[in-house]
Design brief:
The chain is mainly alpha-helical. The chain has one domain. Helices cover 71% and strands 3% of the residues. A three-stranded mixed sheet has the order 1-3-2. The two termini are 26 Å apart. One of its GO terms (molecular function) is endopeptidase activity.
Amino acid sequence: MYIEQGYKGKLGAWNYFVIPGLFILLMIFNYISTKIMVEESGESVELMMSRFIDMMGKNIFLVINLLVFVVGLLVIFFWVKFVHQQSLTNFTTSRKKIDWKRIFTMFFLWGTYSTITILLAVYVAPDNFELQFNWTKFLPLLIISLLMFPFQTSFEEYLFRGQLLQGLGIVTKSRAVSWIVTSILFGVMHAANPEVEKLGPIIMIFYIGTGLVLGAMTLLDEGLELALGFHAANNILAALLMTSTWTAIQTDSVYLDTSVVPEFGIMDTLPIFIGYPILLIILGKIYKWKDWKEKLFGRVMSKEEFFALEENRIEVDQFQNY
């Protein structure tokens, strides 16, 4: 009952949408201002990014971009803890305490998968990749990635799968609505990425599909732990192992993708429609998920129903301990 954990606060449902609303407005402003800059300068987003990177260096450019998310995550935690007065544990999971083992297990599983797929791509088409590994450049990148990417990925998870998922669920009383809407918004958030310009709008299927699988993990597992581990592993390994000159994140990674940018086609969506469901099935077996239909599409309890159930559980726990 992860969504219902949102009842454990002191304010009304409106408070769930203040931080997400401000962030969405900021993203819209950033998107419009970027479009204006592109039109006025006559440069593509890719060329603008290259110019900034040449001025600052890749690591400094990366740190500046990630600092926004560090501040954003701290703002969310402050709001939840001191304004909404909801504990960070209840904001993270329906369990009695945050399950760090789940986070690190998912990080290891998805990190291993990401590493294997990247190395396999290099093995299959070596001419499309350039080995650019350099210890003096890679070590600072490793430190930056391990320290700062968890802030970026955690900010996105707590924003979309935390505040918005809980808020929309409580307002609409529908798990499906909160799951699908937050996944679409998660995809739209990436619309300004250079990848969309290069690969075409169809890549939004990838972003929305990823939002759906992260939302499904959260609802089925009744907590954010798996989504936090998945997202951190995905972004950290991507930054460390593979980059290109036209992606949103450019780093001194092990490999540089030098291939001609293709149009993102229907075949490229197969991992989303096949791979992600397989991942959920595997996780379901590991963590013994039950009642998938109810958890994904069922009704969200009312506040009265939830606290009545909580009180009953406390009484049962006390009786068992006695």
